[in-house]
Amino acid sequence: MYDIIIIGSGPAGLTAAIYASRAGLRAVVVEKDTMGAGQISVTEQVDNYPGLPHIGGYELGEAFREHAQGMGAGFCENEVEAIAADAAGFHLAMTDGTALSGKSVIYAAGTSYRRLSVPGSQLPGVSYCATCDGAFYAGKTVAVIGGGDTALEDALYLSHIAKQVYLVHRRDTFRANASLQAAAAQTENITPVLCAVPTEVVGEKRVEALKLLRNEKEETLVLDGIFAAIGSIPNTDLLKGLADLDASGYVIAGEDGLTSRPGLFAAGDVRTKPLRQVVTAVADGANCVASAEKYLLGMVMK
Length: 302
Fold this sequence. Notes:
302 residues; alpha/beta; FAD/NAD(P)-binding domain; 7-stranded mixed sheet; 5-stranded parallel sheet; 6 helices
């Protein structure tokens, strides 16, 4: 039985693996993606991680992973299908029929892209990852839907590839930080389309246009592709009935990672928090190991 099972290999999970290894705890990281490093690996550039300005997201994710591996962290490439708890600890059933048991669990499974839910949104040409699919739109016209940091980052990235980038947002102002807004405003081929709500993706075999309702009037943008950056959904289905979740599905936990279930700790984007960034994820990973150490010590002393 492991001391700690870490579910997820993003920045939070990898940091937890580093701290667990340093503490001499028997731990394993369960990851469904081979050699994964979480969503940071598909981020073009990270400008706000202390000491490493302008580092590529993939490069930063690889550095986290190499650090964890160098500390002797163990990895299990598999997907968790169910989690059960009893007096002895936690028991994880995997999709391949195998099982793992641990005295504690650090849940750092992250979030998934929120999908665009309008007619035609399943057409080829609707993407949720600009750095993954942007190269297919060289010299073409695309739209980015959203108004937060990710949307403006995607628009800026695509502006170097596409001929024209429409930045579609339902409100009259963007929610992204000031520096991103300034950069987008200074980029000639980014055109804001504000107060606009997508109503339909149009196309025969792939995206041809996007219908909008803008200031109560219908408009159509002729496009080659659409990139949706409209938020995230926490990957917490496995925790339903096991720990308390908020109305949006995030695990209710503070900076110490403690959940309503003793021995279960939440780290990274899955937990309730005001800011979801790489720097807060790595802090969560460290805090959860510190909390798990106290929990495990209490188990020994009982």
